[in-house]
């Protein structure tokens, strides 16, 4: 039964229903989603024929571009007073995560209540803290943000609302990228950004990142969520 469906337990705990990602885009895989109750994610090329997606009840939720940058291409922007630390108040990091990522694909999914989408980000950040994959960003003696990474991938970069709109985005992002180059030793980093977040995308491009392709993301809900859980 699960030949084409890969369980995603990190999503199941948030939505309280079985969740899966499809391992391939074929009619047999799509048919299996009609025979299984749950919430499904499928990533396809933007040039893919989507006729069967509509036929089997999938709906578009987002596109993810992949900006990449080599160490030599990074255009650094320095800002005095930026510091990184693995010592931080977890609740402050979780508070930033709760309100900084309101435009993600699960927030855009009309079948997912906002509180469930918020919970998914908080739990993901909680996991990353446990795995020591988060660094707090301190500025003016305050926790101004954080970034999360895994090997050569920039996973998340969040700024506290009090530090947005102050012209610090480029300096903060530049500092995070430089720090990840330093601590991981990789010569090339990548990240994923939705075109629905042009401010973030423009910051990365201004620092020397170049787009390296994109994928469209579709969801499907077969069954119902226990709303209120």
TrEMBL record:
Span of domain N-acetyltransferase: 80-228
Pfam families named in the record: Acetyltransf_3
Highest taxon of the lineage: Bacteria
Key words, A-Z: Acyltransferase, Transferase
GO molecular function terms attached to this record: acyltransferase activity
Coiled coil residues, start to end: none
Catalytic activity, EC: 2.3.-.-
First-tier enzyme category under EC: transferase
UniProt keyword annotation of Transferase present: yes
Protein name in UniProt: GNAT family N-acetyltransferase
């Amino acid at each position: 039964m699960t030949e084409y469906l890969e369980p995603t337990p990190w999503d199941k705990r948030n939505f309280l229903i079985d969740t899966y990602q499809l391992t391939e885009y074929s009619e047999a895989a799509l048919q299996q989603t009609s025979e299984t109750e749950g919430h499904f994610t499928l990533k396809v090329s933007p040039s893919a024929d989507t006729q069967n997606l509509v036929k089997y009840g999938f709906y578009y939720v987002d596109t993810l571009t992949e900006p990449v940058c080599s160490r030599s291409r990074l255009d650094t922007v320095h800002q005095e007073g930026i510091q990184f630390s693995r010592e931080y108040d977890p609740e402050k990091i979780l508070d930033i995560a709760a309100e900084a990522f309101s435009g993600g694909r699960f927030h855009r999914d009309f079948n997912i209540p906002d509180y469930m989408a918020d919970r998914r980000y908080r739990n993901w950040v909680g996991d990353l803290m446990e795995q020591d994959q988060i660094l707090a960003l301190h500025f003016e003696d305050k926790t101004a943000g954080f970034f999360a990474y895994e090997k050569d991938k920039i996973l998340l970069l969040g700024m506290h609302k009090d530090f947005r709109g102050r012209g610090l985005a480029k300096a903060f992002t530049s500092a995070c990228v430089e720090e990840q180059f330093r601590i991981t030793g990789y010569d090339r980093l990548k990240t994923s950004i939705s075109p629905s977040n042009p401010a973030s995308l423009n910051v990365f491009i201004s620092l020397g990142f170049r787009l390296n392709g994109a994928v469209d993301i579709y969801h499907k809900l077969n069954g119902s969520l226990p709303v209120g859980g």
